[in-house]
Amino acid sequence: AGAGKVGLSLAEELAHNGHDVMLIDRDAKVTAIRVAGVTTVRADACEVESLSQVHLETCAVVIAATGDDKANLVASLLAKTEFGVPRTVGRVNHPSNEWLFTEAWGVDVSVSTPRIMSALVEEAVSIGDLVRLFTFRQGDANLAEMTLPAESPYVGKPVGLVPLPDNCALVTIIRDGQVYVPTPEQPIEAGDELLFVVPADREDELERLLAPSTHGG
Question: Rounded to the nearest 10 degrees, how much is the dihedral formed by the CA atoms of 48, 50, 54, 58?
Fold first, then answer.
């Protein structure tokens, strides 16, 4: 939903990856868009009748990607409650509205562009700090990154000897542009980018473990 720059780019990318995509917008300009693999329909994502006409119940995922947060919330709620769409993704345009994009409004996953950009900047300049990149709505877990500092007590130690907090998993090691699978025997080195799935209430513990000199350990 939403044929602006964001919605159109998403539609093109998803179609390129082999998905069947329907792009809807209430502006007549949507019908002039010609993208291979994308069906364009003039419809209002905030009206039940319009969504019925495009058979929204047949969709596996609905992405509410308009530039209006209110429209994105309504579209997500209708998709989930009226049409039983299994998965909804809501675009957050203004960070002050982020708290609204929850399951109560039918949003399974919220995507805040300002927050993502902020996280990527932090990730680029921070060493020894755990930077939250993404929040998984189900399970209260986050995807977080840390660049391992040289003074970490676990530099050169194999993954299997790192006593990670409960329910925390190291999923990827990035070193010199290469991706390494974190097997128990794989050592971690200073400067490695470590990607974790970690519960929010374990993030501080993980920081103190890997970078105690920075975080008061």
Answer: -10
Mean pLDDT of 22-39: 91
Cα–Cα distance measured from residue 47 to residue 75, given in angstroms and rounded to the nearest whole number: 8
* pTM exceeds 0.70 for this model: no
62-81: per-residue pLDDT in tens?
Answer: 999 999 999 999 999 999 99
Bridge partners, residue 25, by sequence:
42
Chain centroid to CA 105: 18
Here the tokens at position 19 are: 């998905």
- Kindly state the percentage of the chain with pLDDT values over 70: 89
Q: Which residues pair with 199 in a beta bridge?
A: 141
Alpha-carbon torsion (180, 186, 189, 193), positive or negative: positive
- Are the beta carbons of 198 and 168 closer than 8 angstroms? yes
Kindly state the DSSP code that residue 102 receives in the 8-state scheme. S
Cβ neighbours around 106 below 10 Å, total: 22
Residue 66: exposure state from Cβ atoms within 10 A (0-12, 13-18, ≥19): buried
CA nearest 59: which of 22, 30, 33?
22
With b meaning 16 or more CB within 10 Å and e meaning fewer, what string describes 180-212? Answer: eebeeeebbeeebebbbbbbeebbebbbbbbbe
